[in-house]
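QA checklist item 7 of 12: single-chain prediction sanity check.
[x] sequence parsed
[x] length recorded as 335
[x] structure emitted
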Amino acid sequence: SEEVQALLQSLGKQNEDSTQGKRWSEMAQGWARSFVGPAGISVMDATCAVLAIGTTVAWLVCRSTVVAHSDATGGLAPAYASDPTMCAVEAAAWVLQDLLGVSFMAHVLRGIRLPNLKVACILLPCCFLYDVFWVFIQPLLLGGKSVMVSVATGQGRSSSHASGTLPMLLTVPRLNSPLGGYSLLGYGDVVLPGLLIAFTLRRDLWARLRASAERRFGGAGRAEHQLTEIGVDDPPKDVLLRLLAAQGTASGGTRSYAIPCVAAYVMGLALTFIALKLNVGGQRGQPALLYLVPSTLGVVSFEAIRRGEWRGLWSGDAARGIVIKLKERHNAASV
């Protein structure tokens, strides 16, 4: 009938449109692979690179504008307030600088990991001593201003336009200052304690997964025959829990270390701002690691000793995943 023929024609047109859409999609994917794929870069990586370059260029333009205006007017807050356009450019400069800084620190924390608490107990105190020396001891030995403070504030520039420095700092405007200016926090003051916080997060994750494996498979789950029951179609989480159960659960509880560590970091930052107000050591800047390292590392160490889990954190076993040994190739892959 005519209705059936009309229906068939409609379905054929829909199939043709769908086929044409797939053809365009395949052409776009082929174009992307031809230009991006051979270099070993994904489309997502290329998109992120374009965004990163655009953000950097925008920050450079805003920075140069702010620096030129600051040199001409002295960089006081009223000068910015009298020009709405310059005020917006100045605000964009520090926001873009902080965006670049946060992205850089996230990339560092993603690529670098502390294997155990032993490395943390060596690395963090060494950085602590380094920071204290260049802020407090170096001016006493060599005289003059602290080199660390000079570098942090832009090689002698006024901290009222910190967005004119290289993006080595996180900057936030001082809202309660009549002369403007910025509060500064170095990347190391975030990355170094962040390594310890990331270590505690991994420990908490594996502790919860091992506890879940214990609840699901029980004592029999540790037997090696559990591994032979893994199927190709099993969900990845079930496979992971079976592997953890066969390997055995780690000693220690599931109480979090990351939450006390983050709280200790916030407390250390609060102590840093108090020291700035009190002008401890007679320096305009304060070594934040002086307060952050004892608070974060001290809290984690105290909790580990109190819970009886120091040995697992010191060796890294509590934060280590699973190790899969391949008998044919005589190597291992860890998660």
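[x] summary fact logged: The first helix runs from residue 2 to 35.
[ ] second reviewer sign-off
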